[in-house]
Amino acid sequence: MNPDPEKIGLLLVGVHGAIGTTVLHGIEALRSGMPPVGMVTAGEEFSSIPFADYERFWVTGWDVAGDPHHSAEDLVRTGVLPTDLVELSAGLRDRLAMSVAPGVPEPEDERLVHRASADRLQLAPAEMVEALRADIRDWMAADRMTRGVVVYLASAERVREIPEQWLDANADAMHLLKDAPLDISRSVLYALAAIAEGVPFINFTPAPGAAIPAVAAFARKQRVPVLGNDGKTGETLLKTALAPMFRDRRFRVMAWEGYNMLGNKDGAALEDPKRAQLKLSNKDAVLTEILKESPYLHSGVHINFVPSLHDWKTAMDFIHFEGFLGAKMQLQFTWQGSDSALAAPLVLDLARIALLAQSRKQGGVVHAASAFFKNPMEFEDHDFFRQMELLRSWIGATQDEARRT
Predict the structure, then answer these.
(1) What's the CATH fold of domain 235-338?
(2) Do residues 402 and 258 lie in contact, with contact meaning Cβ atoms separated by under 8 Å?
(3) 46, 181, 204, 371: which one has the fewest Cβ atoms less than 10 Å from its Cβ?
C-alpha cells in the first residue's frame, strides 16, 4: 500500500508516560471537537499558516516500562483525563500497545525495565542507533506515513560527561558513535536516529539531545530541524514572564526563591541528584540572564517529590525586591497545574513547528521555538515576550516565503 500523505507519525520516547498518554487522548478529544485550549499554534493569529493538521497525528513510540491502559487509569484517578474519554479510547490504547517498540534504558535501570528494553543494553551505541532507525522505518511503512516527528519525553536522565570530541561541530557524529561510551546520553542516540532518518527531533527534557555541537551540526548538514531543550510549562514559564517586568520597571530584585513539589514518575526520578542537576540549573538560569542588572540577586530552586500530588505539580515562589528610596517589597505566588495537561498541547505545537520548518527546508536548530523551552538551544534571551515575538516573526517570514514561491 502507498503511504498516506495525510497521516503524520508522532513518535514519542516515553510514550507510556503521563505526557505521552495525555497527548494520545488529547488528539482523540480534538478529533471529537474539543477546543485546542493551551495550543499556541491553534490561535486565531496563526489561522492562515499551513501547520500540519493535529487531527492527522498518529501516536506510537518507544518505552522501557509501563502500559498505556494503566497510565490512562492513573490520570483518570488524579483528575487529569476525563473518564468518558479514557473509556471510549480503549481500542486506541490497544492499537498503541501493539506498536510500541522497546526503548533504550540507562544502564543503571536494567533491572527496572521490560526484558526487551534490557536486551537493547547488550548493543553497542552505534547498534542502538541502528535499532532505533529500524523502528522509525518500520512504523513509517506499517502505518503508511510520509512524515514524522520524534519527541523525547523520557524521565530526566542522569548527568553524563560529554566526550570532548563531541563538542567539535566539525566532527562526524555518526562516526563518533563507534567509540562512544556505553552510557552515552540516550537523548543523543534518539536524536541521531531521528536525524539520520530525516525526521525532526524535539527534546522536551533537560538531557543534551541535539544540543551537543556534533549532533547539531549533523542536523544542519542533513537539513533536519531539531528543537529543545527542556519544556517550559509551569514555574519557569511564570519566571520568564514576570522577571522582565521587574527588569523593565527598574526594580532591584534581591532574592527569588522557588520551591517545587511534584508527585508523578518525573518527581520520583528527580529525587536522584544526578537526574535533578540539569533541571534545577535550567530553572534558575533564566533569572540570572533576565535580571543580570541585579548584581546582588540571590536565587535558588528546590524540587521535592510528594507522592500524593501525583501529576499536580505545585510551585511556591518568594520574590524580595527594592523600589524607590530603598523601600523593600515582596511578591509571593503559588502555582499549581497538571504537569501533563500543561505539556501535552506544547508537544503538538512543537511538532507542528518542526514540520513547518522541514517543509521550508530549514535544518538544524529552530531558534524560533525558544519560547517553549527552559534552556533553548543556541539562544540565550529568556524573556518570554521577546521569544514569542521571535516565533511570530519567524512564522510570518515563513508564510511570506511560501507566498513568494
Answers:
(1) Dihydrodipicolinate Reductase; domain 2 (3.30.360)
(2) no
(3) 181
